[in-house]
Amino acid sequence: MQVIRPNFEKRGGLVTVITQDFMTKQVLMLAYTDEAGYLETLETGKAVYFSTSRKKRWMKGEESGDVQRVRSVTVDCDGDALIYFVEQKGDGACHTKAQSCFYRSAVGGLQLMEAPKAGVKEVLPFIDTQVHTLLVVDAGCVM
Predict the structure, then answer these.
(1) Where does the signal peptide begin and end (predicted)?
(2) 16/100 Cα distance (integer angstroms)
(3) Cα–Cα distance between 81 and 122 in angstroms, integer?
(4) How far apart are the first and last CA of the chain?
């Protein structure tokens, strides 16, 4: 099996990791990993990150039990960022026990970041208890 080695030198030994739910593609968290953590993730199938505040490697769920089983890993075109597609076990990915770390709107209320596509009939705000999202309805189909 050929393993792509990310560019760990570019950012001081770390690469950014975006973690997404394998089935829903929801972004669960953003973290960092070092080379040893990346290799351990590939070997064990469990997400291993590097804490920039504690300056140490950690396996997701080692304390909380909220383990992430890695199903797929992709690397970006520059080799300095990864996406881990995971099965999230337990309460959630966030240390607050939320499913995702991205559950707060940056600017009060829901914001549509770009103009709706041509043919979009209406934009409906939809608030999930865990995540703020916008549902865009086009002729009765949710996009």
Answers:
(1) none
(2) 17
(3) 35
(4) 37
Look at strands 122-127 and 27-33 and give their pairing. unpaired
Q: Looking at residue 2, what is its pLDDT?
A: 82
Q: Cα separation of 20 and 28, whole Å?
A: 5
Secondary-structure class of domain 15-88 per CATH: alpha beta
The residue to which tokens 């209320």 are assigned: 109
Q: Are 83 and 6 in contact (CB under 8 A)?
A: no
Q: For residue 134, what pLDDT is reported? A: 42
Instruction: For CA atoms 63, 68, 74, 77, give the dihedral sign.
Output: negative
Query: What tokens were used for 130?
Result: 């865990």
CA–CA separation, 127 vs 125, rounded Å? Answer: 7
The answer to whether residues 61 and 68 touch, using CB atoms and an 8 Å cutoff, is yes
Please list the rounded mean pLDDT of every run of 10 residues in the chain (143 residues).
89 96 96 98 97 95 93 95 96 91 78 54 50 42 43
